[in-house]
User: Which sequence fits this backbone?
C-alpha cells in the first residue's frame, strides 16, 4: 500500500487506529483464552488452536495472522500453507499476555479499552447535558484488574516500607487497623494483609460488584479472616474505625465529593494515624509538551474518570489529572494540618501522606 499521508497528524491517527485495532484483537484473544491455550499447550496451527479453545478455525486463522503481522505472536514459517503454519507466543511476550502476576502483564488493556468505548454515545450526550455516566455493568467481560500485579508486587514490599512511620505502625503491636477506601476488587487490601501478617483491613468501595469479587479474592489469597469488604460511599461512611491508616489508591479523583471523603477519613483515624493517598503522577501544572503519563491520564479522564464522577449533584469534577495543588487544597479543606508529598518511587503514581 502506498502511504500518502503528508500531514503528520493524519499519519499519527492512522497509527492510533492500528493501535486501537491491536487492543480489540487483544480483547478477543484474552477473552477466549487463545493466548493461554497457545502458551500452555505449545505452538499450534489454526486448526489445533481452534480445537483447543472450542472456536471456529476460520476466525482463529484470521486472528493468528493479524497477531503475527502485528508482532504480538510468532510463526515458524510464514511461507507455509495457511493451514500448516504453526504459531507461538514468543518467550518474552508470555508475561505480558498471560502472566497476571507480572508487572509487565498488559492483556487486561483489551478489556479496559473495550469497556471505555461502550458508553461513548452516552458520553457525547453527557457533554451536552452535563449528566454523569452510570457505572458500567460487570458483564459481559468483567472489569480489568489493572492494578492487581502492582499491589501484589509493590505495595507491601516497596511502597509502604518507604513510608517509615506507616511501616513502623503496621509492623508493631497492638495489631494495626487499616481502612482502604475505593478498594475496587480488593487487591490493595489483600496486599497490605499479606505484607503485615497481623493487621486487620476493611476495604470499602461504592460499587457492589467489585466488592463481591474482593471477598472471594481475599479468601483465595488466604487472608479472608483479616480482610473484610463492604460496599459504601467513602464520602458518607459513618461509624467505622478507628484506624491507624486510611489508604486511597487511584480512587480519590474518581470520587464526586473528595473533600467529604477525606473529612470522613480524618474522622476515622486513631491518635497518630494518617491517610495515604496515591494518585496519578501528573505534572505540577498544565504544561506542554506533556509526558506520556499525563497524556494517558487525560485520555482516561475524558472517557471515564470525569464522567463517572459527574453524576452526583455538586460533584467536584476532579478528573484523573489531579495535580498536587488540588490534592493539597482538598486535604486542607477536609481539616488536615499537613500534606507530605512522599518520596515513594513509582512511575505511575505520586504518594501523599495526610496528617491531621
Ligand atoms: C480507578 S478505580 C481504583 C480501584 C482500586 N483502588 C484499584 O486501584 O484497583 C476507582 C474506584 O473508586 C471507587 N469509588 C468511586 N467513588 C467512590 C466513593 N464515593 N466511595 C467509594 N469508592 C468510590 C470506584 O467504584 C472504583 O472502584
Assistant:
Amino acid at each position: 500500500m502506498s502511504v500518502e499521508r503528508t500531514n503528520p497528524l493524519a499519519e499519527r491517527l492512522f497509527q492510533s487506529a492500528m493501535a486501537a485495532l491491536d487492543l480489540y484483537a487483544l480483547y478477543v484473544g484474552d477473552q477466549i483464552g487463545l493466548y493461554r491455550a497457545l502458551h500452555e499447550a505449545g505452538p499450534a496451527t489454526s486448526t489445533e488452536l481452534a480445537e483447543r479453545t472450542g472456536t471456529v478455525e476460520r476466525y482463529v486463522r484470521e486472528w493468528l495472522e493479524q497477531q503475527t503481522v502485528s508482532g504480538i505472536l510468532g510463526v515458524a514459517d510464514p511461507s507455509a500453507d495457511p493451514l500448516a503454519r504453526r504459531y507461538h507466543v514468543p518467550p518474552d511476550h508470555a508475561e505480558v499476555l498471560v502472566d497476571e502476576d507480572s508487572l509487565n502483564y498488559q492483556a487486561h488493556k483489551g478489556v479496559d479499552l473495550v469497556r471505555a468505548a461502550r458508553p461513548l454515545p452516552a458520553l457525547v450526550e453527557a457533554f451536552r447535558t452535563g449528566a454523569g455516566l452510570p457505572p458500567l455493568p460487570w458483564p459481559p467481560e468483567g472489569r480489568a484488574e489493572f492494578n492487581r500485579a502492582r499491589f501484589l508486587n509493590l505495595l507491601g514490599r516497596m511502597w509502604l516500607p518507604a513510608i517509615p512511620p506507616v511501616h513502623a505502625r503496621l509492623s508493631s503491636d497492638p495489631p494495626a487497623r487499616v481502612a482502604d477506601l475505593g478498594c475496587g476488587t480488593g487487591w490493595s487490601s489483600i496486599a497490605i494483609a499479606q505484607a503485615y501478617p497481623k493487621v486487620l483491613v476493611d476495604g470499602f468501595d461504592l460499587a457492589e460488584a467489585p466488592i463481591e469479587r474482593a471477598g472471594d479474592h481475599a479468601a483465595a489469597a488466604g487472608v479472608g479472616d483479616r480482610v473484610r469488604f463492604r460496599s459504601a460511599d467513602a464520602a458518607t461512611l459513618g461509624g467505622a474505625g478507628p484506624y491507624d491508616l486510611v489508604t486511597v489508591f487511584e480512587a480519590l479523583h474518581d470520587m464526586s465529593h473528595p473533600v467529604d471523603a477525606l473529612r470522613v477519613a480524618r474522622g476515622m483515624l486513631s491518635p497518630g494515624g494518617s491517610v495515604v493517598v496515591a494518585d496519578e503522577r501528573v505534572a505540577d501544572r498544565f504544561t506542554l509538551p506533556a509526558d506520556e503519563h499525563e497524556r494517558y491520564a487525560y485520555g482516561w479522564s475524558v472517557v471515564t474518570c470525569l464522567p463517572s464522577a459527574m453524576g452526583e449533584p455538586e460533584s467536584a469534577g476532579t478528573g484523573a489529572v489531579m495535580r498536587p495543588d488540588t490534592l493539597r487544597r482538598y486535604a486542607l479543606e477536609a481539616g488536615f494540618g499537613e500534606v507530605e508529598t512522599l518520596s515513594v518511587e513509582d512511575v505511575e503514581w505520586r504518594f501523599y501522606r495526610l496528617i491531621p
